[in-house]
UniProtKB/TrEMBL annotation:
UniProt entry keywords in alphabetical sequence: Membrane, Transmembrane, Transmembrane helix
Species of provenance: Thalassolituus marinus
InterPro entries according to UniProt: UreH-like_TM_dom
Name this polypeptide is given: Sulfite exporter TauE/SafE family protein
Ranges annotated as spanning the membrane: 6-32, 52-70, 76-96, 133-155, 161-185, 197-217
All copies of domain Urease accessory protein UreH-like transmembrane, residue ranges: 9-211
Amino acid sequence: MIEPLSLLTALLLGLFGSTHCLVMCGGIAAAIGSQAGERRLQTALAFNSGRILSYTLAGALVGALGLWLQGLHDDLMLWLRTLAAIMLILMGLYVARWSMLLTRFEQIGSHVWKRLQPLTGRFMRSTAIKDQLLLGMLWGWLPCGLIYSTLSWVAANGQPALGAAAMFAFGLGTLPALFASTMAGSLLSTLLNHRHIRALAGLLLIGYGLWTGWVVWVHP
């Protein structure tokens, strides 16, 4: 069953974590937008659609992994949900800029990215819409602590469909900032970077993480 609260949380994770996305992907988003010229809008849509498609696929895969672990032993899901609660708290601390511990998870996928990164070169030099879509799909696998932590939380649901939907919502949350970056906009990123907005978003995520942990251990 698709849980609206989970989808809302995923959307918030993407939206308020997108300042980190601007650090990781803002440069390429601005570069391909500048290169596209009059086709900047189509390029922005293609690149970001590719990213979100990869996030959705990853969500389905980790959801299936969680379902498989649940089939092996119920205790595995208990610990996976506990890990998800911890990840939510870490994401809240990261979004509020109270702790950068989350970024250390980016080292996990560095070996995979070394194999994928050379493939991005030819697509970055192309202005064809299909190549920008493929570039976005490749860029969706860029090592990112925010994405990995969200995937860990998604895996705890043990539902491939929910995992895909949650990561799609996460991708939609990251869309405004990166779309604005491609279109040479900066107002939204300035707003999201406001310390009061970051603090509020962080507290909401930390609260949801604490509630998740409480449900796991008090009402397993």
